[in-house]
Design goal:
heterodimer; A: alpha+beta; seven-stranded mixed β-sheet; 21 helices; elongated; B: mainly alpha
């Protein structure tokens, strides 16, 4: 320590530990000349000393060099050690700390993919938008500064009046928001970029905008039940948005760059960019126009009939692709507040109902396939029938009459159907029900599918078989109902319905949904015969005449199922009904299949009153929309009854 | 001896100094020019990027507008405002090789049965479609209802002119048949379609 201190006297003695050396050499002292304060004293002191020093010099220099060397080495060792400690041992920590101060990583948000209809029209897509935020502390400071400068206290009020029309708020609550506590207030979310630009052009201090994205549903309610909606953070919450979230979401990327102490990006530093991978496109089999039209018709029908709701599914007859899946009064996908929490979001696949007579066609298809009946087989139908201790009557009173099998189906006689079912027997009947998919999920690519309910054969009560053949005591979704009729339309081959046409990955590769393998349920001949029988339903004398489309052959079946009344212990109500209709057009070369359910209409209590006209409407629309010409053939006339002369006079020509 | 070496460098020094001064001055000017050009470019870049941003913003806005107005609800509302009605039963002309024309299906003029509900305009706030009550009135009444109601519901698309033509056109397009088959009834049950809209022709 003392060695580096200011020297006191020119000929000084060093307070060295080896006190043996008598004289201090002058040269090293001269080397330190600049630090010496007293210059004039030197020449006088130098000369007399010089001659004497030479004898002592070698030994002294040697000692000093050694000592100095040791000292420097020690110092270097300490420095080196510290260096190793800093660079080698703790190096990563300091490097990380330094990097944290200058290297920044920004997330590059992936754009969520589109959901498009079968023609590629976007049903849901994402666009860029801006969130508007405010820093109340900064605004308050600006207001104070303005008051000091000009004496006016209207800064916040002027902010509010300028911003209010742009963010869609009233000035009063906006002013409260702008002067709230803290340093952050969200003023508006997902404004269009143009509006955000207008706000930026106002140049208000303390108002900021922040890039975000906005999920757009241009059709709003159109297909909302299928599409679902997204959470506030953009993740899928329901429907296709949720089921295909992984495809749609894409993958966020990032960009890493370093800045200087002022925050400027260092152009020489390496910028690492991991690009965001945008989401893929999901193409549905839906037809946007048909979907919209179906929803409009359902909404109108529900309003006019005073029903609780209505559902409709339109399938392509051969591929079983879902062309429309609609329910009445669905929500606005762009506004989740419109979602009614008390009803399923997508009733056509989520809610099951008792189909009623509409599924008598399964009983008849089975009987045809088993060669038990032909369209013109005469069945004697009494007014009532006793089965398992239950007396079943028809919906209208008639004496014992002689119907053909076609007539039983066309006029929807419960008694006649039960007589056919009795010939089939429960086991065969149950086997065909299962083959038609009753009680099983269709496997459609939508969340929350209900499989309906078919009571297992073992659990049947004595009276089960008195109800089941005409569609009571079992339940199905409207999609399952459509699937049953698709089997008839597709010449006996049931193809599981699908709603996804293809998924396009972000890199452009298209993965088309594989066409599911169909399952033959009944022969092509049986299906064709059943279709001619179902045609009689929409001809004069049948229950579904309101479904008829002039110039076209229409095959279909009405249904009116009694609903269990919760106020009467779940007993079947006499006034609450599920009105159904399922059918296809043209009957001899079906192009598409429609299934309709109207829940508890107040006016028009039978399936032929509300559901059949809906079929007429949607079929009329779709044949024009899809350019399906009539086949030009005529329906084969099968009499419905064995008539006496009086009936022949009174009834339409197709009855006898 | 000493004067010569002194004079020679002196004589050569002046142009060298001038050269250096010139180079420095030139360099400074060049630097200034470069700086100015760079600053000017930066200003231009900033302007362009601002333009670019606002163009991008407008693009997003316009795309959203196009998508919204192409949505079926808005197309239907615009069509209704122009006096268009949904077509009824389609008929097709089949022309065989000999040139003979056969009419497939039964052609009939469109009856005004399901008048499409005007939907919220693309820019309107999120509201559910307003209930529409006029579907089961006569053709004449429906057309009138459309003409009186739609301006309020679709402020962006409907003008007074087009709606007056709506009334007359729909009235002319749906003759007596539609009026007789869809007489106003107290029960809002859908009208039976057993008598074909427009009749069989």
């Amino acid at each position: 320590m003392t060695r580096f201190g200011p020297p006191a006297q020119p000929p000084r003695r060093r307070p060295a530990p080896s006190g043996a050396r008598s004289r201090q050499p002058q040269r090293p002292a001269a080397a330190r000349r600049p630090t010496r304060p007293s210059r004039p004293a030197r020449p006088a002191a130098r000369r007399p000393v010089r001659p004497n020093r030479r004898t002592l010099r070698l030994g002294a220099v040697h000692g000093r060099v050694r000592f100095g060397f040791a000292a420097v080495c020690t110092l270097l060792l300490v420095i080196g050690g510290r260096l190793v400690q800093l660079q080698g041992l703790d190096g990563s920590k300091y490097a990380a700390g330094a990097a944290a101060q200058r290297v920044f990583t920004l997330t590059l948000h992936a754009m969520r993919g589109q959901i498009v209809d079968r023609d590629g029209t976007p049903l849901a897509y994402t666009s860029t938008a801006q969130d508007i935020t405010a820093d109340p502390m900064q605004i308050k400071a600006a207001a104070k500064a303005q008051q000091k400068l000009t004496g006016r206290d209207d800064l916040v009020a002027s902010y509010a009046t300028k911003l209010a029309p742009l963010v869609g708020m009233r000035p009063q609550p906006l002013a409260t928001l702008l002067t709230g506590p803290g340093q952050y207030a969200l003023v508006a979310t997902a404004l269009s970029p143009v509006t955000a630009e207008k706000i930026a052009a106002l140049g208000l201090a303390g108002i900021y905008s922040q890039a975000t994205t906005q999920r757009q549903y241009p059709g709003r309610t159109t297909a909302a039940n299928v599409l679902g909606t997204v959470h506030a953070d953009g993740a899928g919450a329901a429907g296709i948005e949720s089921e295909y979230n992984r495809v749609l979401a894409g993958k966020d990327g990032s960009v890493t760059y370093s800045t200087d102490n002022m925050g400027n990006v260092n152009p020489a530093s390496s910028t690492v960019t991991d690009p965001a991978r945008n989401g893929g496109t999901v193409r549905l089999t839906l037809d946007q126009s048909l979907q919209y039209t179906a929803q409009q018709y359902l909404d109108t029908a529900v309003r006019e009939s005073g029903a609780r709701g209505a559902e409709m599914v339109v399938l392509d007859a051969h591929t079983a692709q879902v062309l429309a899946m609609a329910s009445s009064h669905t929500f606005d996908a762009a506004n989740p507040n419109t979602i009614n929490p008390n009803v399923p979001m997508n009733p056509p696949v989520m809610s099951a109902f008792e189909p009623g007579s509409v599924q008598k066609s399964i009983t008849f298809a089975a009987a045809l396939q088993q060669h038990l009946i032909k369209p013109n087989t005469v069945i004697s139908v009494p007014p009532t029938i006793d089965m398992g201790g239950v007396t079943v009557a028809d919906a209208w009173y008639h004496p014992t009459e002689r119907f053909t099998a076609t007539g039983v189906l066309a006029e929807s006689s419960n008694v006649g159907t039960l007589k056919v079912a009795q010939e089939l027997g429960p086991k065969v009947w149950d086997w065909y029900e299962k083959k038609f998919g009753v009680g099983q999920k269709t496997g459609i690519e939508l969340p929350g599918e209900s499989g309906g309910y078919l009571p297992p054969l073992k659990q049947w009560s004595a009276s089960s078989f008195a109800n089941l053949p005409f569609g009571q005591g079992e339940s199905m979704t409207v999609l399952q109902l459509a699937s049953i009729y698709q089997t008839f339309a597709n010449n006996g081959v049931r193809v599981p319905p699908r709603i996804i046409q293809s998924v396009t990955a972000p890199d452009g590769s298209v993965a088309a949904t594989r066409q599911p393998v169909g399952e033959r349920v009944v022969s092509a001949k049986t299906a064709a015969t059943l279709r001619t029988m179902l045609e009689s339903v929409t001809l004069p004398g049948g229950t579904g005449i309101k479904a008829a489309v002039p110039g076209y052959r229409v095959a279909g079946k009405t249904g009116t199922a009694q609903q269990p009344d919760p106020n009467h212990g779940g007993a079947y109500s006499s006034w609450m009904n599920w009105d159904t209709f399922a059918g296809m057009i043209p009957a001899d070369n079906p192009q598409f299949v429609v299934a309709i359910m109207v829940d508890n209409p107040a006016h028009g209590v039978e399936g032929g009153d509300v559901a059949a006209p809906l079929f007429h409407q949607i079929a009329t629309y779709e044949i024009a929309h899809a350019h399906i010409p009539p086949t030009g053939s005529q329906s084969r006339h099968v009499p419905l009854q064995v008539c006496d002369a009086a009936t022949r006079m009174a009834s339409p020509s197709t009855v006898c | 001896m000493t004067s010569e070496p002194r004079h020679a460098p002196r004589a050569k020094r002046a142009p060298f100094v001038l050269l250096i001064v010139g180079l420095m001055a030139g360099g400074m000017c060049l630097l200034l020019a470069l700086n100015t050009a760079s600053a000017a470019n930066e200003v231009a870049r900033h302007d362009l990027s601002t333009n670019d941003q606002s163009a991008a913003a407008q693009l997003v806005e316009l795309e959203n507008e196009v998508q919204a107005s192409a949505a079926p609800a808005n197309v239907a509302a615009a069509a209704a405002a122009l006096g268009m009605v949904p077509a009824g039963n389609p008929a097709f002309l089949e022309i065989d090789k000999s040139g003979k024309v056969r009419v497939m299906g039964s052609a009939a003029p469109a009856s005004v049965e399901p008048v499409v509900i005007p939907h919220p305009a693309p820019t309107a706030t999120k509201t559910k479609p307003a209930p529409q009550k006029s579907a089961k009135k006569t053709a004449n009444k429906t057309a009138k209802a459309t003409s009186t109601k739609s301006p309020g519901k679709t402020p962006s698309t409907t003008t007074g002119k087009t709606t007056t033509s709506t009334g007359s056109r729909a009235h002319a397009g749906a003759p007596a048949a539609a009026t007789s088959s869809t007489a106003p009834s107290p029960t809002p049950t859908p009208t039976p379609e057993t008598t074909l809209p427009g009749g069989n022709r």
